[in-house]
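Predict both folds.
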Amino acid sequence: MSGQRPTVVVCGYASVDYAMRLAPFEGPNATTIVRSRADEWPRYGGVAHVTRAVSDVAADRADVIALSWVGADAEGEAWRAAVRDGGASVAGVAVSGTRSPSSHLLYPEGLSTICLFDPADCHPAELTESQQRVITGADVAVITVGPTELTRAAVKALPADRAIVWIVKHDPSALSPELVAELADRSRLITLSSEESSYLEAIGKSARPGTYVARTAGADGADLFVIATGGSLDHVGHVATERVTGVDTTGAGDTFAGALAVSLAADPHPDASEMLRHMTAAVEAATNMLVARAGAAADELDPQHQREKSR
């Protein structure tokens, strides 16, 4: 365990993200027009989204460490710099291989997000000694999508009395049935979006009674459940959210989960009413992030802002 300040370790893939909004998808063998691309090009995502969120919420209340993998390339160095600039340590980031992971995030009009992920060649067979030290020293581990066997190794290395916040991502290539069962059994809190509700049945079979499940639904807010005896989900409450339009929502779910991880670091065993209060604060953190992003985008479009930038 850490000393006075808890340590939150965030484990999963690194990713250099290229996000684009598309016109309606024209199908195969046809051209679909890119209408706009993200203001940040590229954006440094994956674990970096979560460490930024945890660091923003934690301020000086927790130490945040990334546990991830990048290649020995310029993109990997830029990704690590982004994690450091966001307030987290890269003590758990291993460098190997020649290329860092990347994602192309496509947002076609009228369709759900399309994610094209290249894991690259930077993932070894085992955790490094530094990564072992980082995960065994964690007070809270946030587990997002990552290499299957390395994620299992991190879960196994985490002491049994430490909390896991599992951010469910719909990635069958990474989430084997065995890993789903292990994460559900070990997690104190599980977050997922309404699009990932297909995992709820498997979670109910393996999660321990008392495990919290937070399900987000974008602008429709979020619902909190608790696993009951027998694996059913009991509804605890709903948190509404402010609708933010015309902005890239990438990272909102990670901000939500990161804020909840900080809450668990300070309050490891909340009752249902306390957990609902933590979730209300987490929804507010995600909304504030989107409002700030929308404001930045509006500034970029303002002619006066453009003139000032050109001076």
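Second protein follows, with its predicted structure tokens after the sequence.
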Amino acid sequence: MNIDWEAVLQKAFFAARDAAAKNAPQVEHYLREIAAAHEYAIRSLARALGDSDIDLDTFKSEMDDEAAMLAAELHVVAVMGKAVAQRAANAFRDALADAVVMAMKLAV
């Protein structure tokens, strides 16, 4: 059985890269939404503090809440990233398996 491993690995690499690239924009979009939401909230809190609508303790408490929400949202990003990586790994594996199956069929 003669397999061109360089070509097979290149095909597998490109399959993994394409799978990651296809799904990465979802992660980027979610990160942009998070950033926009927190920017708005933080600006609003800073404005309220500056206008004396809230006191420093309230500001600090609200900022702690923002930090906790951000941490939770970034955990979601980590999960999304793992899903993207898994899809890339699956595409890599499938491309390798397809090449080996094809080589076996040709050898028979």
